[in-house]
Task: inverse folding
């Protein structure tokens, strides 16, 4: 199997990007970007460590949880999690991040690229509070580019069409998956019940 190794080979296969695809990239957030962020309850954060090992982590909250501090700066609260900290450890070595914001039912997405840093600043944490609780920390992103991504991926996948979704009852639970992967002594049902309780106690 041969792999593409140069930009020239890549462009020979794909051709050049259209003028619209090039021109739509902004160097700051405009009104449409801000409007999208105000309605988005979900973002995927892509990062890499210094060796190039990548990670993508989801962050979700009520619509508008990501705050545009100004035209060049975003604040994303970090709610309680499992403390793996893959993304945050990556940012210490390599602060470049790629963000993909989604709005349920909307096939277009907002892509943002920039420099991410984690802060425990009390005033910013207070601004990002939810349910009377402060986030553990806040990811501050210096925006270097932002643009809308076209709908084709969501149209092809029919992601927002419930009639295409698999029957959840026929899929394994996380407890079942973990028991098979890790070999926990406790039953899958016990793990699932523990997760329900963890979620209940530490959502915010």
Result:
């Amino acid at each position: 199997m041969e792999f593409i190794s140069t930009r020239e080979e890549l462009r020979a296969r794909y051709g050049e990007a259209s003028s619209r695809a090039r021109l739509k990239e902004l160097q700051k957030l405009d009104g449409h970007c801000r409007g999208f962020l105000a309605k988005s309850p979900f973002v995927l954060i892509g990062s890499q460590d210094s060796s190039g090992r990548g990670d993508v982590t989801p962050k979700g909250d009520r619509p508008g949880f990501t705050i545009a501090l100004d035209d060049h700066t975003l604040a994303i609260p970090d709610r309680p999690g499992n403390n793996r900290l893959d993304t945050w450890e990556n940012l210490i070595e390599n602060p470049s991040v790629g963000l993909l914001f989604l709005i349920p039912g909307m096939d277009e997405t907002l892509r943002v690229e920039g420099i991410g840093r984690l802060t425990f600043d009390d005033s910013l944490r207070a601004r990002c509070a939810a349910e009377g609780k402060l986030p553990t920390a806040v990811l501050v992103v210096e925006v270097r580019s932002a643009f809308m991504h076209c709908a084709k991926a969501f149209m092809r996948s029919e992601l927002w069409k419930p009639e295409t979704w698999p029957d959840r009852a026929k899929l394994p639970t996380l407890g079942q998956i973990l028991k098979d992967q890790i070999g926990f002594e406790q039953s899958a049902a016990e793990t699932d019940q523990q997760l329900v309780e963890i979620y209940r106690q530490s959502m915010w």
